[in-house]
Amino acid sequence: MKNVIFKTRAYGWQELAILYAPDLTPESAAKRLTAWVNVNPALPQALKVVGWRKGQRVLTPLQVKTIVDYIGEP
Biggest alpha carbon distance in the chain? Predict the structure, then answer.
């Protein structure tokens, strides 16, 4: 398997989710990422602090970094 370096940049929610779960359909990967975010109540709160709103489809680089800080790199 090729060793890919993760780059923090703007990602769509589904796009980021697929990086975490490439074996799933995009919809299932997005649901899994949502579940991982919601399992830690501090993470949604940290995302809100950096401007995230429920239903937002594109994450800023800072929002992506916040997710990675909590759950690790894909």
Answer: 37
